[in-house]
Design a protein that fits this description.
Distance between the termini: 41 Å
Radius of gyration: 20 Å
Number of helices: 14
Order of helices and strands: EHHHEEEHHEHEHHEEEHHEEHEEEHHH
Strand order of the largest sheet: 5-6-9-4-10
Strand content: 5-15%
Length: 392
């Protein structure tokens, strides 16, 4: 294991993210995660304040880049994919870069480098899964068409860069993010479109964006809340930088190579395989059974309704769906447990409920009045009056 630290910079202390994290951890302690050893190796090497965000980050990346073609039937009767959109809020200099490092330099380094080579070669019949936030609309749509329903993924440490891409009419847009959550379709058909890229294609896209509190508020304006874009997002927070620099003890050397080897095996089975001729063949759809988490999610939804608050009730079904998408990845990482391993199933259920609570409480905190009040007692956010964000 190797020690890694985050560089010290100027701190944006508003809002008190560390205080919220302490409140949340008191109300909803993170359950054990040893049932998913691949993720637990990383989480164990993170400071406690970074673990919730790292968990969701790893579920999003793994869902797209390890278990792309995995599907599970949800309580609505539909087949769902591991669709997760993650936004991590952190003050300046608080260590947001670690999420890109874990993705690009550590776990998925082989994937990133391979995709860069593919992009340079521009050969046909190649599946590219990693993209930059400044990709053009034409290029993005060509990738969607050429990936044959295999997920693509983007990691951006400056959410302002994504906002600027939106303004310029680039490939990423609010409409694309909304459609990606439920894998809805987009169309590509104009005079510049190659014949093989014409038609209607489903969008499979996960991402992790990070930014300061003010940058995230600028990105998710009132309309993103009203049209439901924001409620599709897993909002996370990391603590402000304190007196000491956060230290990470992450895998390296032989241990890291073994983790990359496991990722390669998952990718060949659940994403695509490459022929000797260099042609990428998408993996067949893999259906798995997660009906054992239904009871947990039904109970959680009822509890949200009992707590009151119109917004909590309105978004409870959406948040439960987000948690189910995370459960798909947890289930696969745990080796697809069944009735013969009830202990593992219970562990996945607890983590699924944790995801639902985290997504709900952080969403409400982002957009509604609700913080740790006086006397150190955590007031449950029941929604009601929106925060006036004018001028931010």
């Amino acid at each position: 294991m190797g020690k890694k630290t985050v560089g010290e910079q100027t701190i944006d202390k508003e809002p008190a993210l560390g205080e919220w994290l302490q409140w949340f951890d008191t109300q909803f302690p993170m359950p054990g995660y040893s049932a998913t050893p691949h993720i637990s190796t990383i989480l164990n090497g993170c400071p406690s304040g970074f673990r919730p965000a790292m968990l969701l980050h790893l579920l999003g990346t793994s869902g797209a880049l390890c278990f792309s073609n995995v599907r599970a039937q949800y309580m609505d009767g539909r087949s769902h994919s591991p669709s997760l959109q993650v936004v991590i809020v952190g003050a300046q200099g608080s260590g947001k870069s670690i999420f890109k490092n874990v993705y690009e330099q550590d776990l998925f380094h082989r994937v990133v480098m391979e995709d860069r080579e593919k992009a340079r070669s521009n050969k046909p019949d190649q599946i590219i899964q990693t993209i930059g936030s400044e990709i053009s609309k034409a290029r993005l749509l060509e990738l969607v068409a050429g990936n044959h329903d295999v997920y693509f993924y983007s990691m951006e440490t400056q959410i302002n860069t994504v906002r600027q891409s939106f303004a310029k009419g680039g490939g990423l847009s609010s409409d694309l993010l909304r459609k990606a959550f439920s894998n809805e379709s987009i169309s590509l058909d104009n005079k510049h479109t190659r014949n093989e890229c014409r038609g209607t294609f489903l969008v499979y896209f996960n991402y992790t964006f990070t930014g300061t509190p003010k940058a995230v508020r600028r990105f998710f304006k009132e309309e993103e809340y009203e049209d439901g874009t924001a409620s599709r997002v897993c909002f996370c927070a990391i603590p402000e930088l304190g007196h000491s620099i956060p230290e990470f003890d992450l895998p390296e050397g032989e241990e890291l190579e073994k983790m990359r080897d496991q990722i390669d095996k998952w990718r060949e089975q659940y994403c695509f395989r490459r022929t000797k001729e260099g042609i990428d063949i998408p993996a067949n759809e893999h259906r798995t059974d997660l009906s054992y988490v239904f009871g947990t999610l039904k109970h959680w939804i009822e509890k949200q309704k009992e707590m009151g608050g119109e917004t909590r009730k309105e978004v409870s079904l959406r948040m439960a769906t987000v948690a189910f998408h995370g459960a798909i990845v947890l289930h696969m990482l745990a080796g697809e447990p069944g009735k013969d391993v009830p202990k593992t199933c219970r562990a996945i259920c607890k983590l699924t409920e944790y995801l639902a609570n985290h997504c709900m409480e952080r969403f409400l905190c982002q957009y509604y009045k609700g913080s740790v009040p006086e006397d150190g007692y955590a007031n449950r956010i029941t929604a009601g009056t929106k925060i006036n964000r004018r001028g931010n």
